[in-house]
Amino acid sequence: MLNPSFCNEMPTGVKDYLPLDTTRKRFIEDRLRSVYEKWGYQEIGTPTFEFYDTIRAGVGPRLSEQTYKLFDRRGRILALRPDMTTPIARLVATKMSQETKPLRLFYLANVFRYRENQGGRDHEFHQAGLELIGSPVAEADAEVIAIAIHSLAAFGVENLRIGIGHVGVTDGLLEEAGLSREEKDKARELLPKKDFVALEKLVQGGTSSGPGRLLWKAMTRTLDVDAIEAIMPQVERAKTRSALANLGRILMVLKSWGLAERVQVDLSLVRDFEYYTGMIFEGYLHGLGAPIFVGGRYDKLLDTFGLNLGATGYALTIEELTDALKGSGLPLNPRPVDYLVVPTGGESGMAYQEAERLRSRGFVVEMALETEDLQAVLSYARRRGVKSVLYVGADGIRNEDISRDGGVVR
Hints:
Blueprint: H1 4-7, H2 19-38, E1 42-43, E2 49-51, H3 52-64, E3 69-71, E4 77-80, H4 85-95, E5 103-112, E6 124-133, H5 138-153, E7 160-166, H6 167-176, H7 181-193, H8 196-203, H9 211-220, H10 225-231, H11 238-256, E8 263-265, E9 279-285, E10 293-297, H12 301-304, E11 311-317, H13 318-325, E12 339-343, H14 348-360, E13 365-367, H15 374-384, E14 388-393, E15 396-401
Parallel strand pairs: 1-5, 7-8, 12-13, 12-14
Antiparallel strand pairs: 2-4, 3-4, 5-6, 6-11, 7-9, 9-10, 10-11, 14-15
Helix pairs in contact: 2-13, 3-4, 5-11, 6-9, 6-11, 7-8, 8-9
């Protein structure tokens, strides 16, 4: 026999979605879907779980340790998807390799990630995101950033700030500074924490000249196109110069689109996912403790699954956006019931036909199920926030308007 107290508990990091929560979530998803479709993106879906080796090949060993693992009946290790980019890369490589490129794909899905000591953040959360697969040019990266901006503008969000970095630039500057492998790993731990004091000690270049000082200046200052061009002659490695040029090109495209004022270069950005190879970015809103969206270029991920294609994309967290929109005045609450139709005198069929007629006109209509006590019916309607009660019987239809604001009058 089950323990009742145990049955009332839930696993750590998950939650139920009540009608209000679900309504808000669907409203946000529908509006995001509309934005993505207007940019020519098509919706896709992948299984909730994949083979663990597939996930590990995509996200790398560090993040794969945050996955929820399970076994199938044949003893094979499965994993609940910790992100959507890896499953989509597998899908494209195996089932869409012959499709016309570039592919523009979007998704609305739940993902699972064990996030210990991260401020009570959920282990199951919902993402909206997109992938632009098959184009290596800077314009593709700029498009993804532009859509991220437009996706929040669709909700009237004005206080968006975007930090943009580049894996090739950051790694290249770490190489330029002559750090050992251990020192570079340590620097990547310090950068997300913005611990520039410790970084200065590590590179031993905060107050000196040379590659260490170049790294220090680049990692601790906001840069623009002019600053990137000024850094270029000081960089020795051609690979680093190429990455800087790519970052500059992305900024120039965004500037030509009128979006550059939203973006600032932040070379201290480091993402947990190991598949990123180029531009990376994060979106921030005032008052939120975590980025509301993240993204970047991952040119080698599809090659893991046998298809050599460059790709870029981003993902937005629905829960974070929901929190940001509370108090915004957007219609995030469930749609109220316009009519409660009450059969009288046993005229259930007539009441049903009237309810259907109103629904065909776009109204939200409930049917009263227990009609013996009409005072109880009226009390229910008031508690539910129903606007009007219709009594339908052989002698006709009577409308009782009970809404506070006048309601819907026939």
